[in-house]
Every structure is written in C-alpha cells, then in structure tokens.
Amino acid sequence: MTTTSPLHFTANPATPAADAAPAATGGRWSVAEVEALFALPFLDLMFRAQEVHRAHFKAGEVQRSTLLSIKTGGCSEDCGYCSQAARYQTGLARESLMPLDEVMERARAAKADGSSRFCMGAAWRSPKEKDLAAVIEMVREVKKLGLETCVTLGMLDGEQARRLAEAGLDYYNHNIDTAPDYYGEIVTTHTLQDRLDTIEQVRDAGINVCSGGIVGMGEGQLGRAGLIAQLANMTPPPESVPINKLIPFPGTPLAEGETLDPFDFVRTVAVARITMPESFVRLSAGREQMSDELQALCFMAGANSIFYGGRLLTADNADASDDTQLFARLGLVSI
Predict the structure, then answer these.
(1) Which end is more exposed in the chain, N or C (fewer Cβ atoms within 10 Å of the end residue's Cβ)?
(2) What is the structure's pLDDT at 312?
C-alpha cells in the first residue's frame, strides 16, 4: 500500500457535486453524499474510483482469498438470503465442525493455488466454548503455512475476540449486510447493533475487520448508499470490504430476488473504493454468474481482492482456471 496523499478533485460543473472526500461532515459520509456518487455519470464515477485506487494501491494487483465452510447448516438465525438457516427448506444438510486435518488439507491446496488468505466460516449465531477452542487450533496451524487467516463465526464477546487475537488471527469477517433502514427487512433474530458490537469487540482485540454487504436484495440505490455510508463511517473503515451480489437460494425468502443491473453492481464497487480508499474491496458472492467483461469493469472500479476457488461456503464460485486465464488476459498480478 502506498502513502500517497488522497486526491482532491475539482468539481465538474456538468456532474453532481460529489468529491472523493465528504465536504462539511467532519470526515463522515452522509447518505446523501454517497448517493450523489452513485448518481454520477458512469464514466465519471469510474474515472474517480480509478484515480483514488491508484493513489493508495498499485494498479493491477489483486489479492486472492479462499473461503472454506468449516461448519455448514443448522444456523438459528433468519437471514433472508442464507441457505444455512435451519428454518428454511433449502435442501442443505447440517454438518459437524470439519476436523483439523481436512481443514489443513484445504489450506495447503489454497496456498498452492495462489491464495494469500485462508478464510474459515461456520454457521453459528455465536461459537460455543468447545467449538471456539477447535477453531483457535485451526487458526494457529493455518498461520504456520504462511497464510493470512480470517474466520467468520457469528457474534463474539470481548473474551472470545481476545482469544482469537492471541492465536494470531489476522481478520474477522462480520458483514453488516445492508443499510440500517433496511436491516429489519432482511433479518429479525438479531439487530444491526448486535453486528456492530461484535465488530467493536474484534477491533478492540487488535484484529483487522472484514465487513461488507449484499446488494440485490431489494434495497435500491438509496439502500446501497446507506450500506456504504455505514461501512465508510466506521473508525477506521474495515480493512477488507466484501461486496456480495445476492445468490437467490431456493427455499429462502429472497429466492425470487431482484435482477440487479450489472452497472449498479459496478457502481457499488466504485463508490466503496472512493469512500474507503485504503480498504481492500473484494468481489465476493455472485462472481460465478459474472461475465469476464463485468469483472473487468469491477477491477477498473477499484476492486482489488477476490474469493478464489470453485466453492464459496455453500455456493459455486468462479473456477480457479477461469480466474487464471482472466488475470492473464487483463494483466492482473496476484498478491
């Protein structure tokens, strides 16, 4: 990451007033300011996002993460997008926590395939003691391979976060999913504040934060602006920001989700880059359905991280060989 000072843009009188930093809000982004970025002409938005990106990162470098479901299904929460919620009839079998040797086999394969971060996800509201102890051992062993580690285990208290930090955990993923005003439309078994409390515990323990959201859940442009504003106004913003496109799993309340305009997805990536200039912005769920051309636009918009490998928790992901070919075609370098 470079130390170049943030760019200052000269407003274009032909476009809405939306610079690369919030104006009169004390360094915080208002939803209106973020929505003004979304409203920019597409090429203007892309230009601004690319300039902000190059001020903070080397162009053409993309970080690769592999995500493994270490405990699948049976979650007690009612997140409307999730195939792992026990209350929905998605056909997904509930599984026990994966043994350490199998996790390590997957981690070694991920490193050999070019991933630099290994992420482990478990479908829990929050981890029980015996499960947390097992995950801590996984973190320690994966780190010995020279990989960055990330876990997503649901809600944590301060002591749990501290123990994960002591094990050397690099990142904790806890997405806020959607805008504050839309949150109750997606999940009712916990609140957005519950999620923010866990993020605070993780941050206080000295662990990097990975937090983003899902678009295409009926939130509209205003909802996407609210999501990005919430993330950008964290102190500091998350070090990693996954941007997920809804995968409409059969059996979930969002199985008949909206068809998101691909340009709206690219706009979300670009606005995330402008408002969180030092964060890694990751193309996450939904990439398997994206064309090479759409992904190229996302990289142009400032995405510089992907989930890599043919499986993403319970969903298909872009094939690793296809990613290798795409990187070669675009001249991208894996970091």
Answers:
(1) N
(2) 52
